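Archive entry. Fields below.
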Amino acid sequence: MIEARGLVKRYGSTMAVNDLSFTIRPGLVTGFLGPNGAGKTTTMRLILGLDAPTQGSVTVGGRGYRDLPAPMREVGALLDAKALHGGRRARDHLLCLAHSNGIPRRRVEEVLRIVGLEGVARRRAKGFSLGMSQRLGIASALLGDPAVLIFDEPVNGLDPDGILWVRTLMRGLAAEGRTVLVSSHLMSEMALTADHLLVIGKGRLIADTSVDEFVRSSSQQSVHVRSPQAAELAARCREAGATATGPDAGTGPDVIEITGMDSAEVGRLAAAHGIALSELIPVKASLEEAFMELTRESVEYQAAGVTP
Amino acid sequence: MTGATIASAGPDHRATFRAATFGDVLHSEWTKLRSVRSTFWALTATVVLGIGLGAAISAATAHGYAKSGAANKLSWDPTTLSLDGMAIASLAIAVLGVLGVSSEYSSGMIRTSLIAVPKRGRVLAAKSLVFAAVTFVVGEATSFTAFFVGQALISGHAPHAALGDPGVARAVVGTGLLLAALAVLSVAVGTLLRHPAAAIACMIAVLFVLPGIAQALPDSWRNPVTEFWPTLAGGQLTTVYHSAHTLQPWPGFGVMCLFTAIVYAIAWTLLDRRDA
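PREDICTED_STRUCTURE:
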């Protein structure tokens, strides 16, 4: 269980995190979603006591992170897979961390086996690919067999096989009753991995919802119609209270896009007015589009933005 | 991928917790120190420079003793001569100490370390203690060896010293002690400055550049510097002959320790307060 209350973090004049309140529950994978620069990593750093909040508080299992008596046994975290001494062998890296919390040596061998790195445990970490580093980072998070797990973009750099493995691991950890918080900027990945979503943009909470509900509410439907009498159909649809775009240069001379009506209704309307249809296609906005729609206002770095 | 699962995090799992102790952090820092190659090379450099340079300086100076002037003979200090290499060797210790922390900052390892041990003072204390202990052991072994090698090379050409002579044992033991104090100072400076290059430059300035500049100053400026500059004051513990405007051995070492303690306290405070 992770609880944040009115969390604020300001770096100079930049509001990295702005009045965040949320509860992350055990037994679920909670996806922490937002565009780059939204404050995901900062929030995780605040949870882990790396940064001190400007205002508000965040607790893990009811306590501030820095007050946990055995931190690694309660919280496992992977923030940055490359945040290690490259000259140290993988096994030694894990040993340093295990010793710091009094975790027995055999647990190091166990987690190496879980992440599939036992064959390269004697290699120095600087020779690791990003994917191998991610696995090593996940191994270090699992060392203390913790009840709460926090992963910042864990599938970065992984091949499809690795992504599937991480997804299965996260789901398995949550099924064991643990609290799992995973950040990502990819909605499609979260739709497959997470049960619950926290969406933030520009440091503010935009949505705190189950994945199912998010999918239901945001998969907006439209209908794509091609007809020799497109203009007439558009007019009929507007009369019926729907929104129709086209026909124009954007859609093409005989194409309209209709929202606010499903394909069956459009078909009935066309039949009633004797309008011939050559195409009638229901179009579902993808989750990715829904997410972009939701966070459009809060994207920190727009490719073609206005000057500040 | 392997289907190995990890135990459930139920209530009995949490009941088996024991709180992490300072001893655990010491164990961790010891593992960190011995699992990187730079430790081996820096300690090797300390031993080789300490013994080798000491031997070379002892032999060369002893051969010139007969022809040297009366003033030189009056301040003849064979103990210090045989330990002269340690001053250069101390640079290897300073660099290793500084890198122990600052390389964690440059690699990002510090975040992993502070997540594992969020009570940050423990990390600094354990790092300093482990490194100071290792330095002390290596420093004493090196300084005793350098002393015996140096005296063997001096004897026959010039008066040489024995461990039983007044002040000699204190100077030889003091060399290892001073090195251990320097180890703590460099860990603190590494924590304070965080950037490896800046921290190493700072230690070189403290050890060599500022004392060197002082030599070029007029007496009225130079004397207080040679008397109270921490590393020069601390160095009095390692010499048998004391020239004018220097502190006595133990007060001198006290100045070095006080300086180290002040830097350490600032480093501790900043480590605790700064975002990592």
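CURATOR_NOTE: Chain B has a mean pLDDT of 91.
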